[in-house]
Amino acid sequence: MALRIAELATLFSRSYISAFRSQGFKKFNVRTIFVSRPMPNNFSNQHPDPAGKTDDQEFQKWCNGGGTYHKSAHIDPTAQIEIGAVVHSESVVGANVCIGSGTIVGPAVTIGQSTRIGFDSVNIFSPSYNVVFSNCSIGDFCVIHHGVAIGQDGFGFFVDEQGIMVKKPQSLKARIGNHVEIGANTCIDRGSWRDAIVGDHTKIDNLVQIGHNVEIGKGCMLCGQVGIAGSVTIGDYVTLGGRVSIRDHVCIASKVRLAANSCVTKHREAGDYGGFPAVRIFLSSFSLSVRSLFMNGESRSSVSAKFQRNFGTIKRHSLLPAYLPCPRTKVDSAMSGKVLKII
């Protein structure tokens, strides 16, 4: 009966469109009209694997939540898999894991206990977007929000003898530690010569790109729109402000803080950095303060006296030689004989 009603509705729509065309609406064009058909009873047991094939016997309905799982997957009885979520073959899902609707857990993925993936505990009827895992392992007590993709191919190519771009093989994994939170629409690529790693207790904001072979230490904080190129090594307790970009094959030591919109182009030791390229923030502020001493059109004697009064501050910063907007000169012995490079 429902099918007959749908066909009648389609017939009515076609006649309605024909009437419009007969009145001169030539630009109104409908290419395809889909007829809704009743959903088969065993629809929940069907889901294509990554190769696009469908096997009704391979996938089954999970008792707690109604999601779909492969019969070879190892799922703890306390795990919750919502309708629309799929767990593929050889995957391991730990105790008290919550997998939200739209999540796709690829083959051979390990998810630790008490991890929440694309799951809204406040309003279970809110729309849930795809979360895709492949070639990865996820630790315990993690929170992974909507739209996250982990373990996909990295962006790696080389030019062959004919000048054609050829993709490098990306065959390793991505490993997520314990107590990690990953914001919406974040992408973490898997490794090619080493696993991509996110350390314990690291927090990642929305819209973050982490390239292949990247290693991130524990206790780090990555704010929104951070972009990390391939093969970067980041230490522990590093803070990256919004829209920070890091070039490939750069090492960042532990306890580094980068201001928003900074660009890291070479290795950095512990400290605070900012700018393009990123430099130590206190160096930038000190340079401005020293410049202000010599940009008021004062005489050489008054400048020398002012410099002597402020030499204690300059010495504490340990930034001699400094950069100043006048010809190169020397200071007297009262200033420890230091040479100032003045631009």
TrEMBL record:
Pfam families with a match to the protein in the record: Hexapep (PF00132)
Domain of life: Eukaryota
GO MF annotation, one: N-acyltransferase activity
Cellular component terms (Gene Ontology): membrane
InterPro entries membership: Hexapep (IPR001451), LpxD (IPR007691), Trimer_LpxA-like_sf (IPR011004)
Keywords, ordered alphabetically: Acyltransferase, Lipid A biosynthesis, Lipid biosynthesis, Lipid metabolism, Transferase
GO biological process, one term: lipid A biosynthetic process
Protein's recorded name: UDP-3-O-acylglucosamine N-acyltransferase 2, mitochondrial
Organism of origin: Sesamum radiatum
